[in-house]
Design goal:
Elements (H helix, E strand, L loop, with lengths): L1 H7 L3 E2 L5 E2 L4 E5 L5 H14 L3 E5 L6 H10 L7 E7 L4 H6 L6 E6 L7 H8 L8 E2 L5 H13 L3 H26 L1
Parallel strand pairs: 3-4, 3-5, 5-6, 6-7
Antiparallel strand pairs: 1-2
Bound molecules: 5-O-phosphono-beta-D-ribofuranose (RP5).
């Protein structure tokens, strides 16, 4: 257990190099090959100032670490887990089975079946163990959903989400204006 604990107790680093002791969101993925997609979730959390940790945790290659991660997440203060995986994408579902925390699943597009394999295996959870699955490779939406979940208890965060949506609306309207100029 100590060994696994040391794997999780590294200092938390956000994209801008800042550190925080208590991550609220755990971003995990089955392989470092998922990182180019999953780092988009980290970028969104940085925008909202939400602390997170990033770990490679594989359902198949590191099953003990996965169990430990899921079981210790509540104790460590994690509130939402974002889990990305490709192919036989069991990671989010297995993690959800070992924690009461909300788990957002990101299906990663693999080289063989275009991500349909990942999205279907993530969606088809058995009754009783839910995960919230976003679109293929859409780690950005996973982070936005995590922010919305946290925002239920953090009014400041909810205000930031309102602003984010207003900014997006303004941006789209401006683009529309340019088209008719
Ligand atoms: C899954 O297998 C990972 O989530 C990844 O998307 C996929 C391929 O992994 P690598 O062979 O690139 O390590 O477990």
């Amino acid at each position: 257990e100590n060994n696994l604990n040391s794997l999780l107790s590294k200092e938390v680093e956000s994209c801008d190099g800042q550190t925080s002791a208590i991550p609220l969101v755990g971003i995990i993925m089955g392989s470092d090959s998922d990182l180019p997609i999953m780092k988009e979730a980290a970028k969104v959390l940085d925008i909202f100032g939400v602390h997170y940790e990033v770990r490679i945790v594989s359902a198949h290659r590191t099953p003990e670490l996965m169990n430990f991660y899921a079981k210790s997440a509540v104790k460590r203060g994690i509130q939402v887990i974002i889990a990305g995986a490709g192919g036989a994408a069991h990671l989010p579902g297995m993690v959800a089975s070992e924690t009461p925390l909300p788990v957002v699943a990101v299906p990663i597009r693999g080289s063989q079946l275009g991500g349909i394999d990942s999205v279907l295996s993530m969606l088809q959870m058995p009754r009783g163990i839910p995960t919230a699955t976003v679109g293929i490779n859409n780690a950005e939406n996973a982070a936005l959903l995590a922010v919305r979940i946290l925002a239920v208890l953090f009014p400041d965060l909810q205000a930031r989400m309102f602003q984010y949506q207003r900014d997006m609306t303004d941006d789209v309207l401006k683009k529309g204006d340019k088209l008719v100029e």
